[in-house]
Specification:
heterodimer, A: 114 residues, mainly beta, seven-stranded mixed beta sheet, four-stranded antiparallel beta sheet, globular, B: mainly beta, 11 strands
Chain lengths: 114, 107
């Protein structure tokens, strides 16, 4: 059974940094498109970043320059580094695997507040 | 950026009824459109990919149609577990975008 498990969420101060992880099982991070999608509390979905199977990253305009997507093929894990945290970065961060997001993790809650 | 507009915002129906959800794109996305279901407190689940293909394990009561700028998700007969929020999403042109969602609620 495919599983994607996010970790690294929590309460962070504005201006700080964090790294989210998404550990995959029964699904190859290196062979598939992998994405991060976020959802502010009570709001809709926003696709923030994708890394394709060739390793090329793509970012939404709202996060470019602050977010970095990466993967560790040996650990079969996807990452999202977030720098310069802002209150509007608050929300659930989901990792999704596959071109259309065939598989999703349960999400990691990030709260940015002083 | 491609804007996806979903209608209606809320659909009030009874179990057993047919649900028809619309998604309109601000420019053509060809057939690069997916539909997702999100129940409260859960992650989204892929229902339909490439406009009309059911994802693995999705019941046959869910169907998708359309191409270009106009797309439809149809649920032929609503089951109690189908009352949720549904999002369309385009992957044709970066940045990928979602519609704002349609809530299907029990009448």
């Amino acid at each position: 059974e495919v599983q994607l498990v996010e970790s690294g969420g929590g309460l962070f101060q504005p201006g700080g940094s964090l790294r989210l992880s998404c550990a995959a099982s029964e699904f190859s991070v290196s062979s598939n498109y992998m994405s991060w999608v976020r959802q502010a509390p009570g709001k809709g979905l926003e696709w923030v970043s994708v890394i394709n199977n060739g390793g090329a990253p793509f970012y939404a305009d709202s996060v470019r320059g602050r977010f970095t997507i990466s993967r560790d093929n040996s650990k079969n894990t996807l990452y999202l580094q977030i720098n310069g945290l802002r209150p509007e970065d608050t929300g659930f961060y989901f990792c999704a695997g596959g071109g259309y997001g065939d598989y999703w993790g349960q999400g990691a809650l990030v709260t940015v507040s002083s | 950026e491609i804007v996806l507009t979903q209608s209606p915002a809320t659909l009030s129906l009874s179990p057993g009824e047919r649900a028809t959800l619309s998604c309109r794109a601000s420019q053509s996305v060809s057939s690069s459109l997916g539909w997702y279901q999100q129940r409260p407190g859960q992650a989204p689940r892929l229902l339909i990919y490439a406009a009309s293909n059911r994802a693995t394990g999705i019941p046959t009561r869910f169907s998708g149609s359309g191409s270009g700028t106009d797309f439809t998700l149809t649920i032929s007969s609503l089951e109690p577990e189908d009352f949720a929020v549904y999002y369309c999403h385009q992957r044709s042109i970066w940045p990928r975008t979602f519609g704002q969602g349609t809530k299907v609620e029990i009448k």
